[in-house]
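Researcher: Here's my situation. A collaborator sent me these components and asked whether they could plausibly form a single complex. I don't have experimental data yet, so a predicted model of the whole assembly would be a useful starting point for our discussion.
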Amino acid sequence: MTSRREAVRDVLVQSEGFRSAQDIYAELRAGGAKIGLTTVYRALQSLADAGQVDVLRTDDGESVYRACATGTHHHHLVCRRCGHTVEVAGPAVERWAEAVGAEHGFTSITHTVEVFGTCGSCASVASAG
Amino acid sequence: MTSRREAVRDVLVQSEGFRSAQDIYAELRAGGAKIGLTTVYRALQSLADAGQVDVLRTDDGESVYRACATGTHHHHLVCRRCGHTVEVAGPAVERWAEAVGAEHGFTSITHTVEVFGTCGSCASVASAG
DNA sequence: GGCAGAATGAAAACCGTTGTCAAAACCGCC
DNA sequence: GGCGGTTTTGACAACGGTTTTCATTCTGCC
């Protein structure tokens, strides 16, 4: 029975930015879906394990999820106001991380890079209002 | 009465990598200090507010703290095995983040960048043992 | 219809963190 | 040294997101 899991993924696919589990749960319930919070968590976990969604930790420790267009390595440019997210490639950063690691004798380098800002529409809303 | 707070900072200063609140608490108690977990959290919070320590969230949602040598903006190269941490500057990354943001019409760009790897000594230990 | 195994979800457990609040420590002052 | 007023402390409870438990429900298969 994967229908719940599909429902969870659908919410993510139709979302512009990162969403929390509780958030997704609330939306599904509001839409009349019969689903438990546990199932939402399980669905998100298995989607994340399958590499179908990206996971991030917010500053207050909440896990947030996003169905990204590309399955390849990328980073995120996130509007800190509306959550609008753009997937960005950063070959320069990849190289930099490798170089920095090598320089200090580190191997098996991985890295996390997230960029935050205020997107164009939020900026104009702010200046208008 | 800042003695507890100093004790907390001392632990961080003498630590090579990032430490969790519970971790610091355990070390202080093990060393015979009379201190409560609440106080450790408060000390860490105020140290972080004062910019005297850097805070990070681990993948499992725990906050970890480190007394960094420089007060200026920098990133971390962390050994995922022993926690050994090197502070690294990344002007190229700073520029890249700004450029990526501007390219998509984002303003007030900030970013988080952490690099993980296996440090030299851990690598040799692993290959030796 | 009946069965084995997977999926579900309500409730409880977990765990790091934060809030509460009374006791203790500290301060300037006399 | 003794006294108020403020600050710090810490045991404990509360909080919130996440995970586990476990009995029930569903699914595919015969």
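Model: Some features of this prediction you could bring to your collaborator: The helical segments of chain B are 3-13, 21-30, 37-49, 91-103, 120-128. The longest strand of chain B covers residues 107-118.
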